[in-house]
Amino acid sequence: MKSKSSNTIKLFVFFTFILLTLISEYSAAQVLDKIIVKVDNEIIMKSELEMNYLQVLASQENVSDPAKLKCQVLETLIINKLLIAKAEIDSVTVEKAQVDEQLDRRMAYFISQIGSEEKLVAMYNKSIDDLKKELRSQVKEQLIIQKMQDNITKDLKVTPGEVKRFFNEIPKDSLPYFSTEAEIGQIVVIPKISKEKKNETREQLERIKAKILEGGDFCKMAGIFSEDPGSAKNCGELGFFKRGELVPEYEGAALKLKPGELSGIVESEYGFHLIQMIARRGNEFNTRHILIKPTSSSQDMTTAVMFLDSLRTAILNDSISFEKAAKKFSEDKSTNSTGGLFIDQETGSSHIPMEKLDPVTFFLVDTMKVGSITKPIPFNMEDGTEALKIVYYKSKTPPHQANLEDDYQKIQKATLAEKKNNAVNKWFDKNKGEVFIDIDEDFKDCELMITQ
């Protein structure tokens, strides 16, 4: 594949590390749709190219050659389709839990941008569940692409010299001006649920199971009792999944069942499940379940508050650093590996623009002094789990133009992104001959890497 070292692509990599498609409804009246690329069983529609091109175009300024940019976007789409095709050949999959998590994140983002769930539903004239169903295959595809890219680039690193060279090649008049940024961290503790509460949940599901065995309707029971919002409205049904796509505890119990048979009570990281096998189809199976999450007692919450209070005191007394405490004790998977610090997903930096903070965090930090730590705060995690956290306001950076001293993490991330991009391009060049690729004549002027 051709080198992508021009200033335009440098800036493209610097400003757009990951381009994820959000909600897309492209009118057929705007584009006379047709298949423009085939990659084995994967296809690229003209509307898909146009939609992605407009998204990239909107993220850039002063595009000197729109036609060339569109060809570059098409290249990226073709690479992605080959990654998906190879994933199928190599049996690379992602778990349903990962897809669900990403869907929830997308919905939360859309709702925060639009203002409320009701406004989002009104805008698209579709329920949240319907929107998730439409996005599911797209999100799953993106996760598979990411997994394949990670497999290709997992061993890549960049040196300080490479970072400096990358930065120096960006035109000085094109360096971004960053607004006020803050470093914010958190330590999250989930109250330990007592055996009594777990037993209560088990017993509740056992009673539900007994009613179903006596002739009760599983569908109605799921609608009334299940705490899985994605499936409760659909009689608890999850749809067909392959082996390895569901959490091990659930899948292990489900695969022992015959169609129509009920499982025992199964515990997973999500709570307790009552599972019924619906059907098998080759290597796929379809189940439905009733999920109930045990809740923590007031004593469980009090114990967690006392623990976080003592941890906060130890940090303030310099007995342990916040970062070390977060790595050791925090139960938030998204931040414990970073020492509790929030990371800007676009830049890879712990310095986050104030305008990117969610409103709750923004107003909380606005009342804090740099270096301070809050007392334990109760909140609900994204999946509804009750939890507690302490928040650390580590630093504040005034507005400034990008430079290596203040923004090394961001520039390092951009440098690595370019290196990974080049590695994926090389992988494509090596593997493109393994699958059938056909490109529409309308794009023969694009100097694509497929051209023989």
From TrEMBL:
Keyword Nucleus: no
Domain of life from the UniProt record: Bacteria
Span of domain PpiC: 179-279, 282-392
Classification via PROSITE patterns: PPIC_PPIASE_2
Family matches, as Gene3D superfamilies: 3.10.50.40, Porin chaperone SurA, peptide-binding domain
Listed GO MF terms: peptidyl-prolyl cis-trans isomerase activity
Keywords for this protein: Isomerase, Rotamase, Signal
InterPro entries: OMP_Chaperone_SurA (IPR050280), PPIase_dom_sf (IPR046357), PPIase_PpiC (IPR000297), Trigger_fact/SurA_dom_sf (IPR027304)
Descriptive protein name: Peptidyl-prolyl cis-trans isomerase
Species of provenance: Sporocytophaga myxococcoides
